[in-house]
Amino acid sequence: MIELKNLTCRYDEKPILQDINIKITDHLSILGANGSGKSTLAKAICNLIDFDGEIEIESKNIKELSLLDKAKSISYIPAKLEVYDIYITVEEFVLLGRFPYKKSFFEYSLKDKKIAKQTLEFLKIEHLKEHTVSSLSSGEQQLTLIAQALTQQSKIIIFDEPTANLDPHNSKIIAEHIKGLKDYHQIILITHDLNLASYIKSPVVFIKEAGAKLYEDDFFNNSTLEELYGVKFESLAVKYE
Predict the structure, then answer these.
(1) Does the reported pTM lie above 0.85?
(2) Domain, as residue range, for 104
């Protein structure tokens, strides 16, 4: 469980999120207009940015957890892969997910390498293992990011706009993987794609004017959508089915 207590995030003293109080007990989709603070909330939950208030994971203050314990508890998958070593291979990149479990000054264990290999096979990208990450397509890079997160074996995985840079074919592949992972991990999805959020079928937190409201099962109807987005909606066709 993740609990946000009076969470406030600011940029240049301007509140982006203010006094957010939410208990996240299951899977969740976080929606809102562009620039509303969706990614800010994701980064705060992972303790990647400064914030006021408290964030607890399984009743433990995230600011008091060691870096390794945080890595074992939660994974963050950004919208786009940033590669700082243009020569790193897919296999090497995915294996980095095992770093929290690696003994200092030792090589990755046979167990670590087996987990990485199984993850590549699970996502059907083992054939890319010797390719450099920088040479991959955007869809392949997104699958590689997911592979590293799965290799990390954290309980919670946060996806930040996972289909933002993908064509419809790759978006469908990623959507299917995210939905399937709900059986094994607590999934938090940040997106502006209503079709994707509807397909994932999780409770929704909607961010607007620095506040957040939780919708358990009454979000995807025309009246609610029209009220929140300020535009008229027809029926929502889920394109990933």
Answers:
(1) yes
(2) 2-224
